[in-house]
Write a structure and sequence with these properties.
The complex is a heterodimer. By secondary structure, chain A is mainly beta. Chain A has helices at about 1-20, 20-30, 75-80, 230-235, 270-275; strands at about 60-70, 85-95, 100-105, 110-120, 130-140, 145, 155, 165-175, 180-190, 200-210, 215-225, 245-255, 260-265, 290-300. Chain B starts with a helix and ends with a strand. Classes of the chains: A mainly beta, B alpha+beta.
């Protein structure tokens, strides 16, 4: 009996104490809801490759990307590469907050690419990482019998041979408000390999990250390690594997509705097929290309009602 | 006797609870007007409690729950201005000055004095508003100004002309008796 009394007494006094601090009660209620991590990266692209970010529903991004010639291509001949540029123009549209679809066209191999990107998991106080799936199709529309940068003469006998497919899982974690890191396991399939000694399907592992210097400026870097058997190729083909791993480093600058990404890279390709599979330049040889991406965001969301 | 005492305590607990008006879906919106740009945003997940026995009020919201028509703006608001990684919540805690009984239906013009915390800065404030009670529910409307510099919210010079120094805030909160 006394115990029961005591219990009741405690219970009631606890209730009274608990409601003394109304803010603490609200805090308790609030703690039940998950807290999502915002803005792991500034843009939907890290540098050449994708980031885990999708954009907000009914927003459109217009991407203008340039990669200039090699910085070591001379002043008189090429104005340190600025005389020539490879371009990709791209549009992406957010069907939902988590689903992004887009298309683009690159100068390199006159390639059209279409892609879809879906945010599967969002980092929150209950989930350690954000996971996004990315898939794309790239179509090479060069005339058959053109010479590739590697020197290979490429002949297509049907349109299916012009297609390449890519699947990627992007896994990122925002460690602090400044530091975000990302892993990008990738599978790339070319319907037509440029040499009989090359695999149609290649796997690659990407590493990337950004560090915020201040609210408008961040440093980002990206490295894709192509897991292709280069030694095997050298043995069977009797020549060095023509392509290198891609590394890029740059700055993201953000102003109102734009994101500017300025960077240097040994790749000139702006889609995965090109920079993961066909990076001809190497940092050791000084084949460094200066480039930039500009993203302009437009909102098609109707005004909120009040 | 035993049961009587138990019943008494149960009643006590129950009545102790029944004096709280609460909500988790209050609405707070703000509006910034300059010749260059009008910016508005609304948060529809505001938590608030009024204790009708003591007339104490508490309001808490996650700053990230403010929805802007332009998502880039929303990102800037969270990342650059309100720094929601560091200061996720905005709160108000205070007491209604007038002696009113919200359990009695009626319309009351009230003033609440207390502390507002925004962007990690706590300041004493006095908010004026109207409470409309039906006895079971209470609807609060209030309108007040926030001076950005008072809460150490820095707006960079480039966008200075686009964002007003004084932000108009509107609250629309409906409570139910718990």
């Amino acid at each position: 009996m006394h115990r029961l009394l005591l219990l009741c007494g405690l219970l009631s006094s606890f209730q009274l104490v608990a409601q003394d601090d109304l803010l603490a009660m609200l805090e308790k209620e609030d703690a039940k809801k998950p807290t999502y991590t915002l803005a792991t990266f500034k843009a939907s692209r890290l540098i050449n490759g994708q980031s885990v970010e999708t954009i907000a529903k009914q927003h459109v991004n217009f991407w203008i990307s340039h990669r200039f010639g090699a910085i070591n291509s001379g002043f008189i001949d090429n104005f340190f590469g600025l005389d020539e540029a490879r371009i990709r123009l791209g549009l992406e549209y957010a069907v939902t907050d988590n689903l992004l679809v887009g298309a683009g066209r690159s100068t390199i191999e006159k390639t059209y690419d279409t892609f879809a990107k879906y945010k599967v998991l969002r980092q929150s106080n209950k989930m350690p990482v954000t996971v996004t799936a990315f898939g794309s199709v790239a179509s090479n529309t060069m005339k058959t019998g053109y010479t590739m940068e590697s020197g290979t003469v490429m002949r297509f006998y049907n349109n299916l041979q012009r297609q390449s497919y890519l699947g990627q899982v992007l896994i990122a974690r925002k460690f602090s408000d400044k530091l975000s890191l990302q892993l990008m396991p990738t599978i790339l399939h070319n319907n037509l390999a440029e040499s009989v000694y090359m695999e149609n399907t290649q796997a690659a592992m990407g590493f990337g990250g950004r560090y915020k210097l201040n609210n408008r400026l961040s440093v980002s870097a990206e490295y894709y390690y192509n897991l292709v058997e280069k030694d095997e190729y050298e043995e069977s083909a009797g020549q060095k594997y023509p392509y290198h791993n891609s590394f890029a480093i740059g700055f993201d600058i953000e102003t109102g509705g734009h994101v500017f990404q300025l960077h240097v890279s040994n790749s000139r390709g702006m889609i995965e097929k090109h920079f993961i599979g066909q990076t001809i330049g190497s940092w050791e040889n000084g084949d460094i290309f200066y480039g930039f991406n500009i993203a302009r965001t437009f909102s098609f969301e109707p005004k909120i009602k009040k | 006797m035993k049961y009587l005492i138990t019943l008494f305590f149960i009643c006590l607990v129950w009545t102790a609870n029944a004096q709280l008006f609460t909500t988790q879906t209050g609405e707070i919106s703000f509006f910034s007007k300059t010749p260059m740009e009008d910016i508005d945003a609304v948060n529809k997940q505001v938590g608030s409690i009024i204790n009708s026995a003591t007339n104490e009020v508490a309001v808490q919201m996650r700053v990230t729950n403010f929805i802007f028509p332009n998502k880039l703006m929303q990102e800037h608001f969270n990342e650059n201005y309100l720094e929601t990684d560091k200061y996720p919540n905005a709160t108000f805690k205070g007491k209604i000055k007038e002696s009113i009984d919200l359990k009695v239906a009626g319309t009351y013009a009230v003033t609440a004095a207390g502390t507002a915390t925004i962007h990690g800065v706590s300041r004493p404030v006095e908010l004026k508003g109207t409470l409309v009670s039906t006895g079971k529910t209470v609807a609060l409307t209030c309108l007040f100004d926030i001076h950005l510099d008072e809460y150490k919210i820095d707006i960079p010079k480039i966008v200075f002309k686009k964002i007003a120094e004084v932000i108009k805030v509107k609250g629309n909160i409906t409570y139910t008796l718990r």
